[in-house]
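Following up on my earlier thread - several people asked me to post the actual chain instead of describing it. Fair enough. Here it is, all 208 residues.
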Amino acid sequence: MMTGMDSTALTELTRKRDRQGDRTLLDEVLDTALVATLSTVLDGQPWAVPQLFARVDDRILLHGSTGAGALRHVAAGAPVVLSAFILDGLVLADTLFNHSANYRSATVRGTLTEVTTDAAELLTILSDRLVPGRSAEMPPHSAKDLAAIVTLALDITDDNWIVKARSGDPGVPDAPMWTGVVPTRMVYDDPITATGTEIPESVRRLRG
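Reply from S.P.:
Thanks for posting it. Predicted structure:
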């Protein structure tokens, strides 16, 4: 039960409502961000950990070690929140107070369920989400590997998420001065070889 807060605060913005986005923007954020923060409460204490993840239709997939106590906790039905953030630019205005950022962010709440039937397939999907085409270059998952991990799914429903974004320039300054936006983006540098001589195609595409 919510106390001290209207339940719509979990799905609707209370300030700058024009920044709230739709399901299309939600999918865009979840398909662009590589890392999200998974949070819950464990033994009365807040718990949060960054996680690699992938969206598949109306599910968000995560995985981790079967030995991780916190993952067993959330797999057992503890409520969670998963949040992803993409910084698109620093917005430099006429005062420090008015400085801002262009960004896209998403928050999804709910409970995680353990995936048992298609764990190998979903783990492959998660891997290809991070490095497209890598699974075709690798041997299949072994039974030992699959036994050592747990794959979890967070359903996306009509009422358990909120997504927002800011874009554009700063406001017009009161006095003549430079204001503007410094765009930011994620890039991949040249791969650093550990073993072997030929860089696989999936890695070359990532860098390209």
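DSSP finds five helices and nine strands in the chain. That should answer part of your original question.
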